[in-house]
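I hope you will forgive my troubling you with a question about protein structure. The full record is reproduced below for your convenience:

——
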Amino acid sequence: MIIDKHSLPDDPMPAEAPPSYDTLGSSTSGRLYPAEKSHRPQGPFAGPSGSSPLSPPINYSGGLKSPALSESSSLGPTNDKGKGRAVAWLKFSESAQERKSREIRSTILGLVRDVIQEHLSSSQAAVGILQSCADVCSANSISFSALVQEKSIENHTPLYWAIVKRLPDEHQEVEEHHGADLLSALLSYASPMNPDTVVELRAACLATSDQTLFQRLRQSPGFAPVSGVDQVLLGVSMLPDEVAVEELPGDAGGFAANFVIPHFIKRMTVAKEIELEFIARSRMWSLVFYVAPEPKRNMPHVSQPVAGSWCIRLALVESSPPTYIDSLLTIIPAQPSKASPLTPSSPKRLGFRVPSDASQKLDEPPLSIRLLSRDQLQAIKNGNYLGKGIVHALETSASGANLQYGNSQYIGPDEKLKARFEARLEKPKNDSDCIIC
């Protein structure tokens, strides 16, 4: 006799209940999970299930661990996709030491920003704050040099803002008694200086037209490193190039620059390039004496001097605005030397007689070289000078060619070349009408 099975009145299981989990095949394991045991990775500040959000944070000095990967987890085997998510989540976890370093970096950058923003230009307090920041960074293996070179203040470095907010040199004597200059203090920590920082410093000097500061920075090896050839040739005690700029009266944007170049012949012969940079009339200029390299065959449309020629190149650099220019470079004759090779003792050594009127150096007129642009001069980009500057080969004049020789009338006994560059920022009218001459 078969008795039909009837559900009990209080039995919660429906008549058509699914099979129990124990009867599931192995093919479905890992895809179905008990609803009452839901697990998820806990956030850094999330407590256990049901706990208050203000519960004490988990100690994750050893790294966070996902419950999904715990051996004691009641979840079934997970597929590869789930494991990939867990591993990716662990990859971006943060240790206690990393969190501490991040907080220190944030605090240091905030303090440096406050120092710049309050413009404590020559305050001992500012220098003391920077020293404290450097000490904290050193104690926690953080590079303070990297921090002061980071673009952390409105997309610029603290060094950039220190230059932009710095008082001009003519006002510096007012604050001489307040201690070291803020910029000097920042520069002392910014070593080694990376190339991006050098670009920032140059841009700041150009923004403020601070030629005096720019020349001082150029004497710093970190800002304008000396080439290896010059280091070997002249040693560590080599004299820097001297550049002094003055603005000329008038409304044509006139200015003049006086140069003194030590060891001119030796540097041109061996290093083959001497570059002078200066700021005038809100522009950064480059005046280069160089020996022309082999012409580039892939640029036949660009006029290039003959290889080996001694040349002069004038160009705008950085983000300088374009301009017309009419200029004159004057090479000044050197003063006669007391130990001139044309002395009365010379005939005995050379084997021939020197006329008495040649026993002294003959007076040479200044060597004048006109540099002009009938089209607007454009600033060079990425160091590409071809087609962007004004080039003049010295061999085009007899006096210019004489600069290649050690006994040139324009090279002094101290091996220095002296020159003056005068310019007007306006379009030249014609070749015979030089407004500078």
Notes: Residues 226-424 form a domain with the Apoptosis, Tumor Necrosis Factor Receptor Associated Protein 2; Chain A fold (CATH 2.60.210.10). The beta strands are 242-247, 255-261, 273-280, 283-291, 310-317, 323-332, 367-377, 390-393, 417-424. The longest strand covers residues 367-377. The two ends are 133 Å apart (CA to CA).
